[in-house]
Amino acid sequence: MEKQHYSSREQKTQGDRFFKHFEAKIKPLLSKIYSDPIVEQLLTQIYALIQEHLADSLAENLNKWSQNEVLMITYGDSVYTAEEKSLVTLARFLEHLQDTITGVHILPFCPYSSDDGFSVIDYLQVDPELGDWQDIEKIAEKFDLMADLVLNHISSQSEWFEQFKQGIKPGCDYFIEADPATDLSAVVRPRSSPLLVEIDTTAGKKYVWATFSADQVDLDYTNPDVLLEIINIILFYIQKGAKYIRLDAVGFLWKQEGTSCIHLPQTHALIKLFREITQMINPDTALITETNVPNRENLSYFGNRDEAHLIYNFSLPPLLVNALLQGKSDHLKTWMMSMPPAPLGCAYFNFTASHDGIGLRPTEGLLLEDEYNAMLETMEQFGGKISMRSKPDGTQSPYEINISLFDALKGTVKGKDEWQIERFLCSQTIMMAVEGVPAFYIHSLLATPNDYEGMAKTGRNRSINRYKWDYEELKQKLNNPNSNQTIVMGEMSRRIQIRRRQPAFHPNATQYTLHPMNKALFAFWRQSIHRDQSIFCISNLSDRSQELLLSDINLICIDPWQDLLSGGVIQDINDSLTLQPYQCAWITNKFDI
């Protein structure tokens, strides 16, 4: 964003105006987190950090996205060659997707010690195995970049944690110590590993808080210096071209003994603070919160349209998989009816697969027990693994399904069948039509199967869906017209490009659940913000042909109608529509876009 030039008097006036705005926005949030003396000091320190980088306008940008936005999720080395750095190879692969996607979420690209990048050693460096900042910036020039900010924890091999062990500032004050005798049974756990980790330090044995693993040590946000470090990292990522900043595991930020230590008021205040600061630096930047929790808890991260710009639609993947395994729409339909429209300036972030597994906590209260168990059993039959977490009472419960989504849909609860590709395409077509911004995992675009070898090599369930494609091997697959990769990527690209041209698929366009009598059909209506385009999205979730009476979806007789996906024209709105197994239709009154 180009800066305007002001005279010295104008600069002072502008500076005073910005500081008053800054103080009015930031001070109340800091006051919810810290004591008054700390608040006054922090105000000065934060303003000093961002002052030179303030945007020219104080106005909120309410047009951060349109129907054109489509992202791909990938590791920096999901595609590689031996001859060059992986980020260079990724940039070459992205050339094939210039007409398909507009943004790229490159999963953690910093140096790390475990968890495939989510145990960051240095936030301000790029892993030299992947490339450097110049490689990141080149990708950001052509695609909207999403960068991960792993802000709940840092690697035990980081400089900060080494300082902690040595008793050296600043790191000696950056982590949470606790007495192992303390009752921490109320703490919500996403893993089965011990919450407290014993560490040898120069001052003797200490126990530090580690929500996710012994190598991922939680940062102490009660120390305002930690907050300043994180704000500095956010500023740095924006300067490097990040349009989206993903706040990883953000629900766990604030710890308080005697509580669940998840979704605490201080955590929500911190997210509001990050939103206000990014708004002041670059109004085009969007924050996305990663909170893999039950639906109502997840929705709380919109706040009063003052927290996350985007939240993951975590309930969609397991509900969609269940619907396609069962061949019926009831739970998917109930969920859709319960979803409020995203607030002004906010949007849902839709996905069906990611580097993690299919989260199961977001199904709580949404699936019947017998269907839930049938889904787990079917996923295991199709080669998947079920990861567990510890509950406060000491028992364990399923946390996520680890499986390639392509293989998760190789059949139904009845077993494997011949409809894998059609069923998979149906899942992706529903996702890209639902209210929100769609994001496709690279292994969904490439129909990547389960990576059993990778899982055996690492000993981790999640590796089953983190295959690394040799680029030469991948090009051979994509040059074979009969390969799953060519068929799926070609059809996905075609449908995505159609989707990107439709105003009714704007992330904030109206969405209304429809109720055809046939449970095998899932149907909803989207209407453009300007009310000039309607799209009726109809999907056959079953392995049999299904009939839909067009009168059931209330087409208006004064408009001509056409299916955007097949090109078929509706001649008589009182007729019926036959949908083949897993076929989708986007019936619209405006098809000359």
Number of DSSP E strands: 27
Work out the strand percent: 15-25%
Note the total helix count: 17
For the biggest sheet, the summary is: 8 strands, parallel, barrel
**Class from secondary-structure proportions:** alpha/beta
Mean pLDDT: 95
How are strands sequenced across the largest beta sheet?
Answer: 1-3-4-9-10-11-12-18
Task: Describe it.
The chain is α/β, with parallel strands linked by helices and 593 residues long. The chain contains 17 helices and 27 strands. Strands 1-3-4-9-10-11-12-18 form an eight-stranded parallel barrel, surrounded by four helices. Strands 20-21-22-27-24-25 form a six-stranded antiparallel β-sheet. Residues 69-416 form the Glycosyl hydrolase family 13 catalytic domain. One of its GO terms (molecular function) is glycosyltransferase activity. Keywords: Glycosyltransferase, Transferase. It comes from Waterburya agarophytonicola KI4.
Task: Describe this structure in a few short sentences.
This protein is 32% helix and 19% strand. The protein has 593 residues and is an alpha/beta fold.
Question: What is the topology?
Answer:
Layout: H1 8-31, H2 36-50, E1 71-74, E2 79-80, H3 86-94, E3 103-106, H4 133-142, E4 144-149, E5 153-155, H5 159-166, E6 196-201, E7 204-209, E8 216-218, H6 224-239, E9 242-247, H7 265-281, E10 286-289, H8 295-299, E11 310-312, H9 316-326, H10 330-338, E12 347-350, E13 358-359, H11 369-381, E14 385-390, E15 396-402, H12 405-408, E16 411-412, E17 415-416, H13 420-433, E18 437-441, H14 442-445, H15 452-458, E19 469-470, H16 471-479, H17 484-500, E20 510-513, E21 521-527, E22 534-540, E23 546-549, E24 561-563, E25 569-570, E26 576-579, E27 584-588
Parallel strand pairs: 1-3, 1-18, 2-19, 3-4, 4-9, 9-10, 10-11, 11-12, 12-18
Antiparallel strand pairs: 5-8, 6-7, 13-15, 14-15, 16-17, 20-21, 21-22, 22-27, 23-26, 24-25, 24-27
